[in-house]
Amino acid sequence: MRNNDLNEFDEVPILPRLEHLNLRETKIESILEIVKLKTLHSLQRLNLLQTPLSDEKADGIKKEVLLAIEGHKFKLINKDEVLKEDYEDSVALKEQR
After folding, report:
1. Is residue 3 in some structural domain?
2. What sections of 1-97 are H helices per DSSP?
3. Helix/strand/coil percentages in the chain, nearest 5
4. Which of 9, 67, 76, 80 is the Cys-Cys partner for 45 at CB 3.0 to 4.6 Å?
5. What is the biggest distance separating any 2 CA atoms in the chain, rounded to whole angstroms?
């Protein structure tokens, strides 16, 4: 799905084996679109580089994704390894809100 005009998901199909989703260079700008990916239970790697959302959230994008899709066990977000402390930071952010 890389490098296209995608800016929202009307519906996210059930894809039980999908582990990697590359949304790089799309027009995704709302974290609400990422929430829709909750149905992708096997998702481990998500790339949002060079999207309006990733540009806006910058270094905070991992925490935002972890909050949006709670319970997923990510290995990589934007090619950065997701560490235990990233999960802890997202919980702290949730408590602040």
Report:
1. no
2. 31-35, 52-57, 61-68, 84-96
3. 40, 10, 50
4. 76
5. 35
Render pLDDT for 21-71 as a digit per residue (tens, 0 to 9): 999 999 999 999 999 999 999 999 999 999 999 999 999 999 999 999 988
pTM beyond cutoff 0.85: yes
How many structural domains comprise the chain?
1
For residue 40, the enclosing domain spans 20-96
- Residues 6 or more apart from 92 whose CB is under 8 A from it? none
Report strand pairing: 80-81 vs 76-77.
antiparallel
- CA atoms of 37 and 95, how far apart (whole Å): 22
Q: How confident is the model at residue 1 (pLDDT cuts 50, 70, 90)?
A: confident
12, part of any domain: no
